[in-house]
């Protein structure tokens, strides 16, 4: 938690400091980003910084909590659906919201994993558990395995995709959004249907071979 003097700053000043911190944590990594560099980039003195945060870890957690809160708002609450089309449509809508959010908050992509893993894992896992349960109920997820293990594995795939996407963007490449769907469908034992950019349930003739299935 930030110290009281930080919370008493004007909202736009709090926002400015956190934006700088998030950018540097995203660029340099949450483990290696320099506290002194963040302070200098934010244009505040060391004495002021120690009146705002109880050290580097406190600043990191404040920055990650802010990211997690924004992303939780983008994710929203999973709405239980009754069929495949609604399921994939809802995931596609969420994907589009996340994409739009990342365009305006690019640092958040690199901080999704630590924000949820280090700070808000319970909320993130609960959201995944809801849509996994829905997928099982309507037959999209057919793999027979322990439910908690399946939720954890789904979360691991999503975190891996986020990390890969951040690395691709940092290298100047546009991540292929189909990759996440391919991984999840194989993990879940979903029938061989490949998502594409016109809709995640569009069927592509012969494309099941790409997913490792045979005629």
UniProtKB/TrEMBL annotation:
Region described as Disordered: spans on this chain: 194-215
Protein source organism: Nocardia bhagyanarayanae
Q: Which Pfam families does this chain map to?
A: TetR_N (PF00440)
Query: Under what name is this protein listed?
Result: TetR family transcriptional regulator
Any GO MF annotation of the entry: DNA-binding transcription factor activity
Q: Taxonomic lineage of this organism?
A: Bacteria, Bacillati, Actinomycetota, Actinomycetes, Mycobacteriales
Q: Which InterPro entries match?
A: Homeodomain-like_sf, HTH-type_TetR-like_transc_reg, HTH_TetR
UniProt entry keywords in alphabetical sequence:
DNA-binding, Transcription, Transcription regulation
> Locate the HTH tetR-type domain: which residues?
11-71
